[in-house]
Amino acid sequence: MASDRQKSYAYLKRREIEYLVGDFIFLKLELPSELDHIHDVFHVSMSRHYRSDPMHIVLVEDIGFRPDLTFEEESIQILDCDVMVLRRKPIPLVKVLWHNDSTEEAT
Asked: From start to end of 20-98, where are the E strands?
């Protein structure tokens, strides 16, 4: 049958994924019900290729989370200021270096 033939084509690409000790993987987590107001789906255009960096590993105990899962970030320095005009309205832009970020990651 045609459906069996289609299944055989599809299953050629499916295989069990084996992980080794030390492999980096990402997990899909389900948010608790009290966080339902957070949008959990993002467009693929927002994603970027991840480059492994040991500095990205942060222990949860190191970050002081509040019950609503927010935390306070400390700014170190203002790197740049600019004014962008959008529909004849000036919008001030400020590039800030935050405490745990490098200059490449400044926002």
From this structure: 75-86, 89-98
